[in-house]
Each structure stands twice: as C-alpha cells, then as structure tokens.
# Entry
Amino acid sequence: MKEALIYFLAITISEVITVTVAPLWGIVCHIVVLIALILHSVLVGRQSLQRLLISLALVPLIRIVSLSVPLANIPRAWWYPIIYTPLLIAALEVVRITGYPLKQIGLAVNKVPVQLTVATSGIAIGVVEYFILKPEPMISEFTWQEILLPALIFLLFTGFVEEFIFRGVLQNTALEEYGNWGIIYISLLFAIVHMIHYSALDIAFVFTVAVYFGWVVKKTGSLLGVSLAHGIANSILYLVVPFFF
# Structure
C-alpha cells in the first residue's frame, strides 16, 4: 500500500503546483511522476502491483496532455476530442500491456434497467455541481442545434473515456492489488485531478460521485451507466443549467 500512497502524494503535489505555482512546473512534476511510474513498473516483481503502476501512469499523462496541447484558437467543445483521443489510445495500450480482457474492465452491457437508472442520476449530479462551480455556459444560445454536438462530445469523451480510464482500467488494477480499498484510492485520484477547478467543495463532491460510480461498475461489471451519467452530468453543467440560473 505504501507505493500507492507515495504516488498519490506525488500526483497531489504535482496538481497543487499546477494550480498554485505555474502550469509549466506542474507539467514538469507530472513528467517526473510519469517516468517514475513506468520505471517502477518495469522493476517490480509482483504482477498485480506492476499492472497498477503502469495504469497509474495514465493520471499524470492526463494533466500533461491537457496542459501541453495548444487550444487557444480552437472552440472549447473541440478541446475534449483533441485531449481525450490520445488518452484513449494510451489507455488501450495499458489494457494491452496488462492483458485484461475488455469485458473485465467494463466493456460489457449488463443489467440494462440498472444502467439506465444510473444514467439518469447524471442529471442531479450536473445540477449539484453547477451550484458548486457556477460555470459560464459553453454555448451562446439554448437551442437543440447548439446543444447537440457538445452533448455528444461530452458523452463520448468526458463520459466514456474518463470512465474507461478511471472506473475501467485504473479501478480494475487497484481492486486486484488492494481489494475494495481500490475503489476509494481511485476515487481520491479522480477527485484530485479536479483540483484545477479551485474548489475544495467540488473535490469532495467529485470524490463522492466517484465512489458511487466505482461501486456501480464493480456490482454491474459495466461502464455503460456511469459513462452515460458522466456525460449527461457535464452536459447539464455546461450546456443546460447555466441558462436557468
């Protein structure tokens, strides 16, 4: 467990430096953590720990990619495909290296009524997070023409890709190494990468949601419901509720 705590602290410190000192220094710190995780995964003997370490490399990679890609002149909705496509490729490579079958990491359709119920919970999650963050709307007008494309992007990229990385790949390796504590561990990491919103309350809320998502995936064996809920929550947060408040 000490390895997990060390890397959790290292990632947390890197995020703190990113949001309080300078993004450039945050990137440098995350690069150091990324290299350390890759080297450690090569040197460690226990397979379950090796799998966890190589999957944890995805966390600093998220911040490195998100801060390194030039996005200034690109519409905000397109930031997500640009950032999350290379992250999805990296996650698929981690799956190949670890040798997990896709079904084991949640790429399955099980218990459809439960998944649809979980998906609808994204509405409440989005509303609550709006009152925490109160972001500006991502679109200029509240019309279906304006909403449709960004909503699809949220479903596919922040919804599916983030859940595939955290509740699929990372949670699977953490459960193998630490049992049910793995859900708590990955949920804490997921919350920490939301530090970029500068809200302690949001970090606490995201951690709670992450535990809920992790429990759902463990019980159902599917990412479907949480991916839909995640995408719906972001759509509500950035595309819908700002026009009503």
Notes: The mean pLDDT is 94. Residues 2-243 form one domain. The two ends are 45 Å apart (CA to CA). The chain has ten helices and no strands.
